[in-house]
Design brief:
28% of the residues lie in helices and 24% in strands. It is an alpha/beta fold. The strands form 2 sheets. The chain has a 4-stranded mixed β-sheet, covered by helices on one side. It starts with a helix and ends with a strand.
């Protein structure tokens, strides 16, 4: 029996299901997570701390993003910000200003795995330590969730976007 979604995706992509993975490596895409924000500086600094990222450096030949913007006649309302993994292995986070505020619960959120490599109470304590650092940087703890499928600390960033720390 044909599965309509799978077969439809195969037809749309033009990739035969029988190709070995090495022959379809072009399907592997880098991703970027984009945040709509009010305060570029606050949000980019917060998420750099949360993920152990760094501010994205300006293009070669510029000592700062301000210098880049000035030399390219970019008005401040057109400025954006980004943070990157120092090793460039994890997704880039991009921040763009928007006039409207957050109006509903996120349909997608980030899970920060501070406890990776530790089990039980040791893992929970690592997560709690990371959550305390984030609270000092402007996050809010909503609650701890302990369910049969897992445990996490549900939080919001300085602009109210939900995320979890495990």
């Amino acid at each position: 029996m044909r599965h309509p979604d799978r077969d439809g995706m195969q037809a749309m992509s033009g990739v035969p299901r029988s190709l070995p993975l090495k022959e379809v490596s072009w399907l592997s895409l880098d991703i970027q997570v984009t945040f709509d924000v009010h305060d570029l500086e606050v949000m980019s600094r917060f998420w750099a701390l949360a993920l152990d990222y760094e501010q994205e450096p300006p293009p070669p030949g510029f000592s700062s993003w301000e210098e880049f913007a000035e030399q390219n006649n970019l008005r401040p309302e057109l400025w954006r910000a980004a943070v990157v993994d120092p090793e460039r292995k994890r997704p880039r986070l991009f921040f763009q200003p928007v006039p409207e505020g957050k109006t509903a619960k996120n349909r997608v959120h980030l899970d920060l795995r501070a406890s990776a490599g530790a089990d039980g109470e040791e893992g929970r304590e690592r997560a709690r330590q990371h959550a305390r650092r984030l609270v000092e940087a402007g996050a809010t703890v909503l609650h701890e969730m302990d369910e049969p499928i897992g445990w996490c600390i549900v939080m919001t960033d300085p602009e109210g976007n939900e995320f979890c720390v495990t």
